[in-house]
Structures
1.
Amino acid sequence: MAITDRVREILSWYGSDSPGTLTNLARMLSAGTLGGTGRMVILPVDQGFEHGPARSFAPNPAGYDPRYHFQLAIESGCSAYAAPLGFLEAGAREFAGQVPLILKLNNHDVLYEEKDPIQAITGSVRDALRLGCVGIGYTIYPGSTHRLDMYTKLRELAEEAKANGLVVVVWSYPRGSGLSKEGETGIDVTAYAAHIAAQLGAHVVKVKLPSAHLEQAPAKKVYESHGVPVGTLAERVRHVVQSTFNGRRVVIFSGGPTASDEQVYDEVRAIRDGGGFGSIIGRNSFQRKQPEALKFLGTIMGIYAGTHK
Amino acid sequence: MAITDRVREILSWYGSDSPGTLTNLARMLSAGTLGGTGRMVILPVDQGFEHGPARSFAPNPAGYDPRYHFQLAIESGCSAYAAPLGFLEAGAREFAGQVPLILKLNNHDVLYEEKDPIQAITGSVRDALRLGCVGIGYTIYPGSTHRLDMYTKLRELAEEAKANGLVVVVWSYPRGSGLSKEGETGIDVTAYAAHIAAQLGAHVVKVKLPSAHLEQAPAKKVYESHGVPVGTLAERVRHVVQSTFNGRRVVIFSGGPTASDEQVYDEVRAIRDGGGFGSIIGRNSFQRKQPEALKFLGTIMGIYAGTHK
Amino acid sequence: MAITDRVREILSWYGSDSPGTLTNLARMLSAGTLGGTGRMVILPVDQGFEHGPARSFAPNPAGYDPRYHFQLAIESGCSAYAAPLGFLEAGAREFAGQVPLILKLNNHDVLYEEKDPIQAITGSVRDALRLGCVGIGYTIYPGSTHRLDMYTKLRELAEEAKANGLVVVVWSYPRGSGLSKEGETGIDVTAYAAHIAAQLGAHVVKVKLPSAHLEQAPAKKVYESHGVPVGTLAERVRHVVQSTFNGRRVVIFSGGPTASDEQVYDEVRAIRDGGGFGSIIGRNSFQRKQPEALKFLGTIMGIYAGTHK
Amino acid sequence: MAITDRVREILSWYGSDSPGTLTNLARMLSAGTLGGTGRMVILPVDQGFEHGPARSFAPNPAGYDPRYHFQLAIESGCSAYAAPLGFLEAGAREFAGQVPLILKLNNHDVLYEEKDPIQAITGSVRDALRLGCVGIGYTIYPGSTHRLDMYTKLRELAEEAKANGLVVVVWSYPRGSGLSKEGETGIDVTAYAAHIAAQLGAHVVKVKLPSAHLEQAPAKKVYESHGVPVGTLAERVRHVVQSTFNGRRVVIFSGGPTASDEQVYDEVRAIRDGGGFGSIIGRNSFQRKQPEALKFLGTIMGIYAGTHK
Amino acid sequence: MAITDRVREILSWYGSDSPGTLTNLARMLSAGTLGGTGRMVILPVDQGFEHGPARSFAPNPAGYDPRYHFQLAIESGCSAYAAPLGFLEAGAREFAGQVPLILKLNNHDVLYEEKDPIQAITGSVRDALRLGCVGIGYTIYPGSTHRLDMYTKLRELAEEAKANGLVVVVWSYPRGSGLSKEGETGIDVTAYAAHIAAQLGAHVVKVKLPSAHLEQAPAKKVYESHGVPVGTLAERVRHVVQSTFNGRRVVIFSGGPTASDEQVYDEVRAIRDGGGFGSIIGRNSFQRKQPEALKFLGTIMGIYAGTHK
């Protein structure tokens, strides 16, 4: 595996990590279509757990089969495939070595819906190691009354992951009674959520694309008085990247359910232009038939790679 | 112990498990009347704990004796016998090696009835090993406010069980304030519950036979818009099997208290036709006299084996 | 220590236990006046903790001294003496080897009275070992909202006790908001409580003598439709014994505060006639002067031994 | 270190303890002015933590310095000095070997005042060992809704302390919503609190001097019907000593803030006459200038030793 | 590294600590501009976590880069740099050995605001060791209903830190429903908070500069009756130093957001004159451009060193 200069540069930001963790981070950054560019597109498939199987896979029933997502990630040239324990166990031997795997260590369902959510621990660092994963994934909910417990648990798992040479990927999703619905994706809250994940020791941070909404009054005052540019999506991406150790941590973005592919492509362009490191794309890819999914993901990777406008 | 091609095929779905766990899974799939067919009938006797001894055993007082159930499981040709610690301790030496045993690791009583139930931990992986069990059993209650704690604990026990070469059998029973009474057996909820159990790393999943009810509005919308066929019981079984990694995890079914044996047989036919892997039959078998129980279980196994219509 | 056939028979029911545990169980069954008969009378003195010292010992102030109870148990020929940590520590060296000891591992006081009680952990398996005990004692409160936590903790302690060759004695006392006051000693609830203790792995189960009250509607229906005989005290004892693995676990009984010695003797006759394994007698023995206590306990043992009508 | 017969007698009550623990108990009983008499006066200085530094030390500012209390304990001939971690760490090297030390393992402040108090764990058995202490101190609040958790934690710490040859000193202070304000020092409650501490394995029990108040109705009935003498302070001390294993555990007493030295001396006389083992005297000693404190403590010790009336 | 007499004197106060911990404390006291004087200025940068990135760094966007703060601490001659895990991980290799580091082990955000705050555990002693830190930092909130849990956890971490030769720095910040807003910085509460931190085993205590407000009635009475001088800021600093083991523990102070640099300098003069050991200065330094920050910090250090009036 040859390492590009850009990958080498990114690895240089993680001076406190072991060669083992850097090796696994290099594997993610060197895999797939975008390998070596410093950009990543990750395929996450935890929607079966999060929303139920029919809501996730009825639109493209091939997705009921856990092998489908391994294949999709491999054939589309994704940088990594992230899923809960069961889905990874069901394909890790068959597809061993073909795509970097991230074991999602916590999950949540919607069979009961809490105002202040928390997640169940559904996997371990040892599970990640026995399944050949490059890293672990973990969700935090800044804004939930349970957030501090989630941070505390993440730290424990991250310490164990790092001691075992794994990469730590954190999904930082503001939710809960500390925030308005609009505030969950507000730019101040999103930048704050990304910063917290980085402070907790994440190597890779994943947030939702932020809106221009400013949720917290003391923050709003600062954004306005200092003229922090957050008017365009690219500017907001740039601000999130800045808030994540001034670009010295990998930050990737997910969108929500969007109306059209063109909108997604525009979002990807904004991520690219704002200095974001890539996308994590779940439902939008595995809920369409495989040929369309490959084309869709190919276009996105092309935008990042510069081979597609 | 000769392994049939069908058993070999089923074992092939568990590529992340150790030879030790596959050995024990093969033992369950090769035991009893249905050994080698890929179908299973399991005898569970935890009703004494769950509902009290008289409600469980007064109809057939032979069942007060823990040895009775070992004998019933052996003589009827069941694939395995599952029970709490005390019942297994009371016969494991006498019947050692005669029937695969599953130690139920958690249990609940009805001396206090909670809106949002959870279970006590009543056995350990070490207990299962010292009693010669092939696997552990564990109940989760998706829909309960305690569900995330139950998932977290299951994961810990499952990791330990797998590290010790045991099979993990999960009873996934939706209950609690997140669901209506009707919703507990709704097809969307049942399929979701089976999927969660599989994602948590279960090798064998046990759910109740689902009704055509659709509980959750966003799910209902998907079932209807995508025309997921759930009109007949066989279709619903098929959908649950599909939702459990597209048939690559063993799913078995229990009925509730039913009106007549014929109804049970019809349910078994639906499970068979829908691609289900078998039944778990407790009260309906041990609450009748042994000769009738043997005949009843024999008929069910015959339906699965194809020797009975 | 010669083992009688009856003791040998009782030991045969515990096929999953180690020779170490059987040795200690044999010690209890072979000690004192009733040694070898398969019946037991145990002296428990935890009332100082449970109700306070004056309420316990003012009627017979010799009982303030922890040595008194060792002497009483030894001189009266009890099968074992059970007490909390402090009381055992205060005499275990002086009376080493003279009477089987049971360390009560949890206790409760009445300086705050909860609707749903739980107990403090007040001793450990290691304490029991260093004090030379044959077993541990543990109380559960089926019916309390805390019962599942109590079961979970009992299981942990029982596993450790068994791994160290100790006997597990469970006080199963229904209490809490799941039950009416009358229900706490109802026959359905008592039989259920004894069954739960056995399922949790108890070697010896202790319950209160049940009344004819039927607490839970679904149980009442079964008792009535199946004509389970619970009219006389002996019948109710027989039903509890049946509910505890059909007599294959040792079940002993306590009465409440009773009006006269004759009433106690009648209760003992009912336990004997119903197939119960003996009595646990605290306040009724140590709250009278020693000569009277010896006579009283002697009469009870005589009823069990058949030397007293 | 020569051991007197009286000390030897006291040690004989602790037959279940290791030579290591007896050695440390002998050190306390042999230290200072009262060494060898079987009586003790302990200096406790946790008021800085419990009430704040100014309320504790402004009356005698020399007490802000942690060394002051070591010196006071040594020069006054106290049997031991008890304090939280920080205060002991600040002098343990300088005064090593000059006075027996007791590390208080839990503490409470009044910056928030709960109806049902509990304490923070503020030291460990390992801390006690590295600081050269003879024992650990621990407070329980019988009457608080948290009491059972406090007992459970005490038991764990006591087991560890005993395994390491340390003495266990328990402050048993009834408080919380189970008791009226007057009830906290009622004789029934105080005797009960002392009994609980002894049952939990304490070697030395510390309670407040009890009033004649009887808090709990069932206890009141027993005290009255059996004519338990609790009319004078000496009688009440005698009853507490009786309730603590009939005098076979060391019980010491603290007073509250009192009006005059003569009152304190009278209390000490009552403790002496009632068979109490001594006093624990904090604020009343360190809040006056050292010469007065030495004189005050000297008088108290003289009363216990019989050299002062 | 030569040790001055003053540093040697300070080290002598920590007689219960290991040479390892003294070595690290000596490193802090010997580093930077104030090295050897016994005074310290520490740069803390946890505001990104505590208030969000924009509120922290928009005023001086260089601060988004974690390397900036290492450089600022080094170039300004600070005694140490304290930050959460992520910020330290991002520079510890590059700046290894150039400035003593303190890993902040707990943190809090404002995405949900509790009446009674607690913090998440965000780092470990092992993290501090692998990053080459001289010590750990930990915040407690005396006055919060969660304070006792925070003390308990601090004690565990402090014991582990000391066993590994690290220094323990405690941020003692009164907050929560036990206190009025004004009371959080009242002199009685501040002195109490500093005393608690020292009792919990802190080597270095950090509090806010206290106001003359007296929060608690019993304390107010004592301050007034004993005429404790708290009228001027220097007097209040002196009282806090006195309350922290009479000056035998290092106490440093932070101000709040202040109106002018001159006010800060006046506060520093008061700390100096009152016998305080230094300042911890975060926002006031890193929120201005580096040249101004260096000048500002230089002036403060000059006041402490006596080279600036």
2.
Amino acid sequence: MAENYVEMWKSIGMDIEKHNELLNILGQYYGAVYLTQKNRPKAMGYFDLVVSEIHGLRIKELNDSRKAGKKVIGAFCIYAPEELAYAADATMVGLCGGADFSVPDAEAILPRNLCPLIKSFYGFKLNKTCPYFQSSDLVVGETTCEGKKKVYELLNELIPTYVLEVPHKPDTRQGKEFWYKELEAFKAKLEEVTGNKITAEKLKESIELINNKRKALKRLSDLRANNPSPISGLDALLIYQISFNDDVKRFITKVNELCDELDERVRKGEGVTAKDAPRVMISGCPMAIPNWKVHSITQAAGASVVVEESCVGTRYFTNLVEPKGDSLNDLLWAMVEKYSQIPCACFTPNDARIKSVTDLAKQFEAEGVIYYTLQNCHDYNVEGVKVDRALKTLGLPMLKIETDYTMGDSEQIKTRIEAFLEIIQAKRKS
Amino acid sequence: MAENYVEMWKSIGMDIEKHNELLNILGQYYGAVYLTQKNRPKAMGYFDLVVSEIHGLRIKELNDSRKAGKKVIGAFCIYAPEELAYAADATMVGLCGGADFSVPDAEAILPRNLCPLIKSFYGFKLNKTCPYFQSSDLVVGETTCEGKKKVYELLNELIPTYVLEVPHKPDTRQGKEFWYKELEAFKAKLEEVTGNKITAEKLKESIELINNKRKALKRLSDLRANNPSPISGLDALLIYQISFNDDVKRFITKVNELCDELDERVRKGEGVTAKDAPRVMISGCPMAIPNWKVHSITQAAGASVVVEESCVGTRYFTNLVEPKGDSLNDLLWAMVEKYSQIPCACFTPNDARIKSVTDLAKQFEAEGVIYYTLQNCHDYNVEGVKVDRALKTLGLPMLKIETDYTMGDSEQIKTRIEAFLEIIQAKRKS
């Protein structure tokens, strides 16, 4: 791929040599983790192609659209209101932040005891190896965690970064009114950056578009409640990850085609794992591409990962934006309500997340939960206390894993997960 | 002291045995750090007495006032609007959170890689050795940092805890309107808890009272700009710490008496350190009583700590609440403006703090800055990047120290501070 895109990469200011290193690492890692899986659905071929072209063809599409006057808005969080971006005729893309590759570059400036995702994204902008950063006209950040919030200030020195403030008490009237005004201010910013007016008609259309993306992902997720699951946790995770980068309409079509195939598998009782594989939920911090560490260790240990209670998972697609009317005011208020329902651990208290974890455990017949925390993420780390208690009331064991993007602790995590699966097996017999 | 207060401590549910351990440790530590200082102002005698009675006489005063119907509101942060508490005829007190003593108790539940202040306060409530917690009718928290925010949820299970949401973008209209509404909601909560109506007259009075406390502390602080400083950094820090616990009116009188004595010292050119002692600013995280670690090491190394850019320092008393009229609306808006000027690192961006650090460095003729971060405090840790840059433009060296409440790293910190003071000395000669 590298040969065909070098000129394009140069034109967006990438560090070609360093980027080649990254592509080599990613290619090998993807091959080892994904292409060794057995019995994958045929329709995964499309998503394999997307990954292989994620720094190539997709970047070409984005930059072709930029030449035609479209703007690209980079984002990190499902609190970034993508409906507004599309209503301004812009494209929203997820930025790089899931690889250890860029962490050492970030650590030359940032404290080391910071979340790996934050160090990763800042390093990717510093070292110029993320083509999504290099193709973005604006970055939209949010105040969902203090590490990101403070690093956005430094990121803004490298690329224009607009920060939306997310209220942290989810249920107060003043908090919702504040969030409404933050959405209005972001709308004005997008209109300024794109030169396009966000009308009620445009916003209604984009709400429908993004709702359709969420519906397709929920359809995929719900299919995994079957036993055996017709698709692996790794493959589902990959699709959730790609949802932040691929062309939205094409992506919806391809996810639905995959679901058609999975429907057929379910009808036949076919799955990717043994029917008696332990069913595990993973709950916690987001896993940005190519963060496949815990899923791959869990699968290799013989478990079936059946659901991710995560921003790269159910938190993204569980609720839709459901307007009560067609005015801009109605549409924005529907967005306020929808986004207030995302149970981010930045909320206090975050009872909706506790309910979501227990509801999902029941729906997916999970036999245990791996609680996944990125290192130094206080919000998810502390909230684990309450999640653990709630799972205990259901009689479900929880394994807490706090880790970064390096592979140094893989063997230790493997040992802990194997012991955890033994606990699940023992509970079955008792 | 213990003999006289045991019955009182029992009556507020304290763990007497464990508390005796704590008192022994604190007494010895205070003696070693404070009473060994030479040439202290005579008026420090009052503050020594306050410390010796901080779990005794002061707790008796609070509980006598509770018997007479007054409520006590516990707080952790200078964002807790004390003017409202006093206007509701309540007393606001700072809660324990500065000692390693309670950290192991907290770590039985909380993650270990959390800020020591947070673990300390949660542990103090768990182990029932903080008489301020035990005497509080309500705790008021705030969303200034995510670790505190999430632990308040757990604290609320042990003692009623009300959380105020502080907007993090300090300069937006919607943020200020939101903060106004949060103050209104807290006012209603206080009226409910105390049974007292907060009138404009009462609020005006309490604003004046707290302004007078801030003025007295600023008078003390400004005196330290003299060379040599008439009071040690340790003694000044102690007074700032005590300001959260002592009776407000008495405290104001005693601070002003001390300042009268310091005025006299300044007139005579007397100070507590050699005139050529390196002048050091400490900037960063708050230091709750008995957190004297970095000050005592810095003083012992021969430096004069002349100012603390800290919430237990200048951030508390630099600005006053200055109403433009007498209505409740005027008074609350004046509070919104004042609190928005506290340059907490939770703000993004926090340009006011960068300006404050450089302004203070000039006012106090600091020759170097020790940047103090509590372990795992992302806000202050990351903001250190910008503070360092700003100080470089003034040609001032900065030493970053990230530490907890244990003494395990004291020798290492001592070595680093000594080397830092040598840099300052070398700069003088060059």
